């Protein structure tokens, strides 16, 4: 009995401590549960429910096989010239009088790809009015994980877009939120022409959204009342991406940049003046000050051009002087990159458009470093911007103005130093 009484006294001393522990645990669990509910309610209210996995993606589309007689001689230029109609040959090898490059046409795989793609284009696979097929360039299609989408602009015209996943889809959504690159295309082109650029940014951990303007690529022609305003289309595309797209929950809306080439560069300059969601821009080959008006410059902008840039055919050695006034209108952080011997096609990966062999490398190196510095605060990217390159123009200055400091660069030139 004495032993039992002693045990009871020990148990009675333990109970208050145990009860306090149970109460504290229950309070903690309740607190965690309420916090989870509050977060879920907040996420639901904002439309930003957690994204556990990316939507199904696919590589870029390669062209279908050509008709059997063409496939039999597809790597033989002479045989193709004898077999195909003159109009088809013109579409193959001379889009808008650009001419051809020996490098591309001497590669049998590129030639075969281009023949198949152009024949598919002529059979109605994308906009027939465009001189450029919508299959891009061999190699880049396999290097992206893209999610095809369709959305409507403010006038009701249906536009085609491609969400290019970061890290080719290998980076999970929860590793975000991801910075965003909005990619704007040139006149009469399509998303595939710039797939190399999309791949570059996606491989660096950005989510890229490219789309076809009204009447281009795989987008519809304008509905009644649609004026075909590319700035409005770009704003509507960005709104779709952030508010309605299947990846919206994985995006960092505070880190959005825009890149554009030719017509896309002109649109970029106009867009950055009126779109507060943007934080940085790259305008590649914006033609001239007259063709690229903008009323304000609230964000950092990089201009890219080449020695032989020009709106249709190259303008040897003169175009940087035409583009420079655009750069001088900019305020704050800005850059002007002039690539040696590069043409208006420098930013495309279309098979037969001529440009310098280092064109894509310079365009990609400096556009990525600009966004890495401006959107991510990457100091190593600033060193890339300040580092120069042997194939910058040796005739015209490239220039960088960051935080009030100005640096100028020229390339090494073609002669031994």
Automatic annotation (TrEMBL):
The keyword Transport is assigned to this record: no
Domain of life: Bacteria
Molecular function GO labels: carboxylic ester hydrolase activity
Signal sequence extent: 1-36
PANTHER family cross-referenced by the UniProt entry: DIENELACTONE HYDROLASE DOMAIN-CONTAINING PROTEIN-RELATED, POLYKETIDE TRANSFERASE AF380
Species per Swiss-Prot/TrEMBL record: Stagnimonas aquatica
Keywords, comma-separated and alphabetical: Hydrolase, Signal
Residue ranges constituting the PET hydrolase/cutinase-like domain according to the UniProt record: 176-377
Annotated region (Disordered), positions in chain: 48-69
SUPFAM superfamilies: alpha/beta-Hydrolases
InterPro entries reported in the protein's UniProt record: AB_hydrolase_fold (IPR029058), FrsA_esterase (IPR050261), PET_hydrolase/cutinase-like (IPR041127)
Gene3D superfamilies: alpha/beta hydrolase
UniProt-recorded name of the protein: Alpha/beta fold hydrolase
UniProt keyword Signal present: yes
Pfam families referenced in this protein's UniProt entry, alphabetically: PETase
């Amino acid at each position: 009995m004495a032993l039992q009484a002693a045990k009871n006294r020990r148990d009675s001393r333990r109970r208050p401590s145990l009860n306090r522990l149970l109460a504290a645990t229950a309070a903690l669990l309740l607190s965690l549960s309420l916090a989870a509910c509050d977060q879920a309610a907040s996420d639901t209210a904002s439309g930003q429910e957690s994204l556990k996995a990316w939507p199904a993606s696919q590589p870029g589309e390669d062209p279908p096989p050509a008709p059997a007689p063409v496939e039999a001689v597809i790597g033989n230029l002479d045989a193709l010239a004898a077999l195909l109609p003159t109009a088809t040959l013109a579409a193959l090898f001379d889009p808008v009088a650009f001419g051809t490059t020996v490098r591309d046409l001497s590669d049998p795989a590129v030639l075969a790809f281009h023949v198949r793609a152009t024949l598919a284009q002529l059979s109605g696979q994308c906009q027939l009015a465009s001189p450029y097929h919508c299959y891009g360039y061999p190699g880049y299609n396999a290097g992206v994980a893209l999610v095809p989408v369709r959305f409507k602009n403010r006038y009701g015209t249906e536009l085609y877009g491609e969400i290019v996943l970061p890290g080719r889809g290998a980076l999970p959504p929860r590793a975000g939120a991801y910075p965003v690159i909005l990619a704007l295309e040139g006149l009469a082109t399509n998303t595939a022409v710039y797939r190399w650029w999309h791949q570059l940014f996606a491989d660096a951990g950005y989510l890229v959204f490219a789309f076809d303007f009204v009447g281009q690529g795989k987008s519809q022609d304008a509905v009644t009342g649609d004026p075909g305003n590319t700035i409005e289309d770009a704003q509507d595309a960005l709104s779709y991406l952030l508010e309605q797209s299947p990846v919206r929950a994985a995006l960092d809306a505070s880190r959005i940049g825009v890149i554009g080439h030719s017509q896309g560069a002109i649109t970029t300059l106009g867009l950055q003046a009126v779109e507060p969601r943007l934080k940085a821009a790259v305008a590649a080959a914006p033609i001239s000050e007259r063709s690229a008006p903008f009323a304000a410059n609230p964000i950092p902008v990089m201009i890219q051009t080449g020695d032989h840039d020009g709106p249709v055919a190259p303008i040897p050695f003169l175009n940087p002087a035409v583009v420079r006034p655009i750069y001088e209108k900019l305020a704050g952080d800005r850059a002007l990159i002039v690539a040696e011997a590069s043409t208006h096609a420098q930013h495309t990966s279309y098979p037969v458009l001529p440009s310098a062999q280092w064109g894509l490398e310079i365009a990609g190196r400096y556009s990525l470093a600009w966004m890495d510095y401006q959107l991510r605060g990457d100091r190593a990217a600033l060193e890339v911007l300040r580092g120069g390159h042997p194939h910058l123009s040796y005739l015209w200055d490239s220039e960088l103005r960051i935080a009030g400091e100005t640096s100028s660069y020229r390339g090494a030139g073609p002669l031994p130093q």
